[in-house]
Amino acid sequence: MSHASFVTAHVLDSVRGAPAAGIDVHLTTADGTPIARARTNDDGRVPELGPPTLESGVYRITFSTGEYFAARDQATFYPSVTIDFRVDAAEQHYHVPLLLSPFAFSTYRGS
User: Fold this and answer.
1) CATH number for the domain including 94?
2) How far is Cα of residue 39 from the mean position of the Cα atoms in its chain?
3) Which residues form the Transthyretin/hydroxyisourate hydrolase domain (predicted)?
4) Number of structural domains, the chain?
5) Would you report the helix, strand and coil content of the chain in percent, each value rounded to 5?
């Protein structure tokens, strides 16, 4: 599958067992310089987040999870989830999935 964006993301609400739609997602450099912003779609995915290539280095993706849970009247320990990850410009694509619940989360390098 070809991607127009070098970075994509996906959020699954593991308590509901369903995609987490409507979460704001920010991609920045490690020092916080903004690169892109998007919102998860009805399938919990961000198919386009930034440019088609990035230079090698460390980047940061932040998910606005507090707003997501507040909209569901659900308490949460995490107002946001921030993941730093290393990019190798020679790669073709990075996918950052987030498995989310109000009091826990996990992530991995997806495909």
Assistant:
1) 2.60.40.180
2) 9
3) 2-110
4) 1
5) 5, 50, 45
**E strand or H helix that includes residue 66:** helix 65-71
Residues annotated within a binding site for substrate: 10, 45, 108
Q: Is residue 2 part of a domain?
A: no
Write out pLDDT tens, residues 31-87. 999 999 999 999 999 999 999 999 999 999 999 999 999 999 999 999 999 999 999
| Range(s) of the domain holding residue 15 | 7-107
Question: Do the beta carbons of residue 19 and residue 40 sit within 8 Å?
Answer: yes
Which segments are annotated as binding site? Answer: 10, 45, 108
**Is residue 98 within 8 Å of 105, Cβ to Cβ?**
yes
Residue 54, both tokens: 């990035």
Indicate whether 24 belongs to any domain: yes
> Both ends of the chain: CA-CA distance in Å?
10
Instruction: Say how far residue 67 (Cα) sits from the centre of its chain.
Output: 14
Confidence of residue 14 (pLDDT cuts 50, 70, 90): very high
Q: Find where tokens 């609400």 sit.
A: 13
